Amino acid sequence: MFWKKDPDAPKYYQSLLEKELELAIVALSGFQAGTNEYAKQVSNIERLHKMVMAGNQKPSSSVSKDTLVNAGANLVGIAMILKHEWAHPISSKALGFVHRLR
């Protein structure tokens, strides 16, 4: 019913870019150095190389490790407070000790 994204599609496109880069490098030998066609082919190779390198980079995480550690510590603290309150009821506001996100 709905189209699902192919998980191998980025790898397929990356392999196509790499093949095109190889073909462009091989075709470079057919041009004489110093001509406009040679310069145009070199600029195409540079652009293809940048695209291949951009595809090989790992995506950066949008959440830093410090934030994940802080959130995990807060969850552990909340669990400890709730466990203690379940065993020994506390009449004060115990959740006031939890750090708020900035």
Secondary-structure-derived class:
mainly alpha
Main sheet: strands, sense, barrel: none
What string, H for helix and E for strand, traces the elements in order? Answer: HHH
Please identify the oligomeric state. single chain
* Number of contiguous helices: 3
Number of domains: 2
Span between termini: 43 Å
What is the percentage of strand-forming residues?
under 5%
Shape: rod-shaped
Overall average pLDDT = 80
Percent of residues in helical segments?
55-70%
Task: Tell me the radius of gyration.
Answer: 28 Å
Number of extended strands: 0
Poorly predicted regions: none
Give an account of the 3D structure:
This protein is mainly alpha-helical. The chain folds into two domains: 9-56; 65-97. 63% of the residues lie in helices and 0% in strands. The chain is built from three helices and no strands. It has helices spanning 9-28, 36-56, 65-87. It starts with 8 loop residues before the first helix and ends in a 15-residue tail after the last helix.
